């Protein structure tokens, strides 16, 4: 907001100097700088200095507020010179110091940039004003926190199940009130900031026109006044109109048709009007006024864009808050049961004996307690990996290019992660079968945290590695992604094994929902919060926070999650197996069941036509291609992260309802086929996002300039959301579908589903590689995804046709 204001004021001076330069005159000979700059500084108390410097940073002209030193463009921060991704030089750059914001605008002749114009704003005063606004908010937050504490205190006397039932909606209501207060204040601040630019434009233009009146000249004696207003309007397209009124009539107007008529306020606009009184005169018979009108829609859209970031953060915190609130209720209930069991004094104490039985390791209550402990662990493990979703592809691409390997190596780094992840699954499953799940959860947390810490210090680490081992940043990046892939594989299998250990067969579907919720909820929250943190902390800061969270997860596993019991199967292996318990050969023996699985037509049809393509679209399109394509189209990193978040929301919502439908009907084939078709439609919408504005505006006869941007973003959001819904149709039902395959009866449910999870990871690995080839062949543009949409439709039809050959319902086969 303040950046726009700075640039608007700087353009007043920049336009005059550039006009001078394009006449072929040298920058040092410009005359009239003080006349331009001093009125701007006098009209804005936050402006500290306006400086013209050459390319080397030497100050040529300067004007500053009283008691302030002039500040020129900083050579060690971005300057508006060179080309951006669009092939054009940047219109301006914003530099920042602890005390100031500096807007740097290029000064150009007909051929090149010859200097810089620097406008400095007092950062300390701006932050003080914001803190003053939020001072009241802080007081309200303290009051609401006190209300929560009092509510929790009064409910403490009830049973944990009862207090949890009332405390959760009570806390949710307080949370919504707090969010409403913060949102209201945020909207006020952003609204004032957006309107400040229009106010600055009015100040700068009135200063220029007022100079003519101060000299005692009549505006009618000056040629080009109306053209100057038109040019000013064109340079600031967010303005609805610019007018100079004389005694209420439009003497000059950016819309020539309105000149000479009575000026009237434009509808749905904010109007900024300043009276122009010649210097030394308190009044004049001719009342000149400068009037700028800004459409309310412009102000509201800019406010909405900034508030959107807060709304996304609010949604992400809802996931986290709900998760840990439920955990607190479970911990409190467990504590009460322990207290009751310790108070048992006689056999007749039925309540205490019941609590004692519920504390037994194999009781349903103990299993539910352990699952409640597991849920936040898996959620946070996915969360910390998703924090880099909005910027990791760009970072990998940048390191690959700087290492001389080219942009194409980006996909191979992605493949390393998913390859390490996939190859870990089967050995990890055998490890869990022999040793239990706790070791996998602990090791996975440590490995994931270590990979994030390694990326946080990749710059300093690469210097040391280069000096001693001859390797560089790209090798460290590859190592970090491999370690992260192994860690995430351990965490997934450890979580799955923990669920199987602690979930009754009648509730196994609910247990598996923990993975669906944790994975997608973690992606939603991690991508949103990580994208926002990247703006303020940079890539290294986000990686460092993720690493710290990972080590906290390891401590959580070590302290709270018990080791459990080894499975019966491991005991059988120990007694009758010819391999040493826990040997590498033992861990790798699960791969032998692959040959049995690949002989089952239903299993093979599902994995090739549905499972692998779904994961390939997830990694190749959602995680890899969309961030790169949108980055090429100059979408902001926080916008990219929020768009990825929409995918996760679609998966969570669709999976919640579709899982119930499949459990109720016992039929999964049609649901999987529907998911494939919806996936292709989602890819189609994303693919035509750039062409959609032309098609829709022509069909509905709309104004292209007004609606094109909205239509493009709408097509993108609908496509990503539909892609998420489609994968929600597939992720949970596909496990049920595979469980109905004949091979499951031969090798067992757990081994067959584990092998399916392993095989579908081939899509994880192949996705970025395949999509990267499409992008290289057809261009880094959304329309490339149309070819993928066609491929998904064809595979979906193949799946449906092959499925017709084995159409017996699951219940019939079970009978």
Give a verbal description of the structure.
The structure is a single chain. This protein is of the alpha+beta class. The chain has five domains: 2-123, Beta-Lactamase (2-Layer Sandwich); 126-187; 195-300, 2-Layer Sandwich (Beta-Lactamase), CATH 3.30.450; 360-591, Growth Hormone, Chain: A (Up-down Bundle); 598-807, MFS general substrate transporter like domains (Growth Hormone, Chain: A), CATH 1.20.1250. Helix content is 69%, strand content 8%. It is built from 27 helices and nine strands. The chain has helices at residues 2-21, 33-43, 123-155, 160-214, 225-235, 296-342, 350-358, 364-386, 392-402, 409-435, 438-456, 458-469, 473-502, 508-560, 568-576, 584-588, 594-597, 601-632, 637-665, 669-687, 692-700, 704-731, 733-739, 743-747, 749-778, 785-803, 810-814, and strands at 47-54, 59-64, 93-96, 100-108, 113-122, 241-246, 249-253, 269-276, 288-295. The protein has a five-stranded antiparallel β-sheet with strand order 2-1-5-4-3. A four-stranded antiparallel β-sheet has the order 7-6-9-8. Helix 19 (637-665) crosses helix 22. The protein is elongated, with a radius of gyration of 32 Å. The chain starts with a helix and ends with a helix.
